[in-house]
Amino acid sequence: MCGIVGATSRTGAVLEGMIEGLRVLEYRGYDSCGVAVADGERIEIRRKVGRLSELEKLLVDGALSNARIGVGHTRWATHGKPSDENAHPHSDGSGRLALVHNGIIENYLELRKELQAEGRVFTSETDTEVLSHLVGRELARGASLIDAVRAALRRVHGYYAIAVMANGANGGLVCARQGPPLVVATTADAAYLGSDVLALLPYTRDVVYLEDGDVAELAPGFARITDIHGAARERAVRRITWDAEQASKGGYPHFMLKEIHEQPDVLARTAFDRILSTSGDVSFEHGDWDDARLRALQRIQVVACGTALHAGYVARYLIEHLARIPVDLDFASEFRYRDPRLVEHTMALAVSQSGETADTLAALRLARELGAWPVSVCNVMGSTVVRESQATILTHAGPEIGVASTKAFTAQVVAVFLLAVRLGRARGVLSVEQGRRLLDELRCLRPRMEALLAPHSVERVGEVARGHLDAKGFFFLGRGVNFPIALEGALKLKEISYVHAEGYAAGEMKHGPIALISKGMPIVVVNSPGAVADKVRSNLHEVKARGGHVICVGSDRESFELADEVIEVPQTIEPLSAVLNVIPLQLFAYHHALARGCDIDKPRNLAKSVTVE
Ligand code: M6R
């Protein structure tokens, strides 16, 4: 949720780099932000509600520019509204320490009472402030910073990524992880920490991902990792193979637009090396994907949230259709509390871009405890979901910065298509020839995606999207594999343009929601040739008869004749139509939001990675 940075340097100032780090992490949360730096004996904290630009106004005096140690934070509020007082860093009033935190301290009320009873004064509504006081109390008793942090963490329940700095003889920089991600790195003269590797890329590509229970002590050129009792822990250094350029806008006005345009390459990176043309099959790298194991599967349980769940719906359709395995699907947040029952030989399939979504992770853990085989489709190597899975299909979408997920979704859909083919081949449902045909068709998607992203096609979508700026609400309808695409189209529009949009199974409209249709209401109908195309056409008639203004997206020509407006998509086989049909819907949301003047990459109330429950 929140973004954290920290740095300590022997030779250079750290503030400017930390601000740049916060800028790339702003996607994680952006309702307030702050920094703390130490210059000699003094710890200075500056924090502000609003975006980073507001904080920068507090720094123009240059007074903190030479500091060599600091921590910074960009917040997505959980406990306490966005305000200057609730913004991080927090302190304990001693002027000796500053602390930033991502996560939730569950027993903070009880700890707060205990600390207040000792005369400690709290100045915010956050759960974080108890951590600063716990650390401050230990420092006041003469503990070193690392010992003070370990002692404080032994008192808290919950999950956190924290970074703490303190001045004086027992000061320094320490960070710890229990839940939300944290990455550290050292160079000859400095050490850095961040809640996303993106913040460290300007300094180095060799990083260490902390694991749950790790506490790291950082000094220039030095990092030591222990557990909360002080026992040493060894962590491998990982080399990041993509560069900072891939995480920049590359000339596009918004990350979202850039990421939409990256999709043909994402398809190639996620799929092409895995295709085994001769055997009409697929190979995956991480985990045991043997035929025997796949043949034994009785069921697949998908757990995911938001857009990733929509990819899960596509997985259900594809796997049941191509591999004949029953697939269940749950919101991860529901699965974990509904006392689920799993049959023997169940694959628990977590789908997640970030690999850090708290609900998805908890659902995966629960499924594993219930005996399922934990498998993931994930975009972030080294993320918690990947580490806790026994097999993973990495989506190679590259860093996704736009809060509204686009290329990660397409990559997830491609990944679950590959999984369906692999399962179908392993279980003998698909022949070599059938496997080949499906995979050949997948290869052909690249030029078709490029056609959808050609300037005239993008402009056509923009024209349609701008034509409905006065609409009070939208329906997005689809069936079969395009039902989740309708859900995704509606979610994209809601997220970034704040317009009410409902995604619905087209056949379900007549059971209630059709009552909402009034004259001229825009109804986006997603339809491509296949088993349900004629059914969708009937549903299209139904909404049109109630005065709906139908915008048809897809490649079903017969639907075009019934529609008021058409966004044509190149044709492919039905199981892959989802991959193409979603692209104009992403562009539709983008252009609608742009015309409404919305903040596309940082929509209100949202954060990129939801690491709290
Ligand atoms: O990182 P994850 O894929 O696990 O995230 C899941 C959802 O939070 C995410 O897809 C969210 O719905 C996006 N904002 C959608 O654009």
Which term fits the overall shape? globular
CATH architectural type of the largest domain: 4-Layer Sandwich
Domains, number? 3
Structural classification: alpha/beta
> Major sheet: order of its strands?
3-2-4-1-9-8-10-13
Helix content: 25-40%
Tally of DSSP helical segments = 19
How many strand segments? Answer: 25
The termini sit apart by 11 Å
CATH topology of the largest domain: Glutamine Phosphoribosylpyrophosphate, subunit 1, domain 1
Q: In percent, how much strand structure appears in the residues?
A: 15-25%
Assembly status: single chain
Query: How big is the Rg?
Result: 25 Å
Low-confidence stretches: none
Small ligands present: 5-amino-5-deoxy-1-O-phosphono-D-mannitol
List the helices and strands and how they pair.
Blueprint: E1 3-9, H1 15-25, E2 32-39, E3 42-49, H2 52-57, E4 69-75, E5 97-105, H3 108-117, H4 128-140, H5 145-155, E6 158-166, E7 172-178, E8 183-186, E9 190-194, E10 206-209, E11 214-219, E12 222-226, E13 238-239, H6 255-261, H7 263-271, E14 275-276, E15 281-282, H8 291-296, E16 299-304, H9 306-323, E17 327-331, H10 332-335, E18 346-352, H11 358-369, E19 373-378, H12 384-387, E20 391-394, H13 407-426, H14 432-452, H15 455-466, E21 473-478, H16 483-497, E22 500-505, E23 522-527, H17 533-545, E24 549-554, H18 557-562, E25 565-568, H19 577-595
Parallel strand pairs: 16-17, 16-18, 18-19, 19-20, 21-22, 21-23, 23-24, 24-25
Antiparallel strand pairs: 1-4, 1-9, 2-3, 2-4, 5-6, 6-7, 7-11, 8-9, 8-10, 10-13, 11-12, 14-15
Bound molecules: 5-amino-5-deoxy-1-O-phosphono-D-mannitol (M6R).
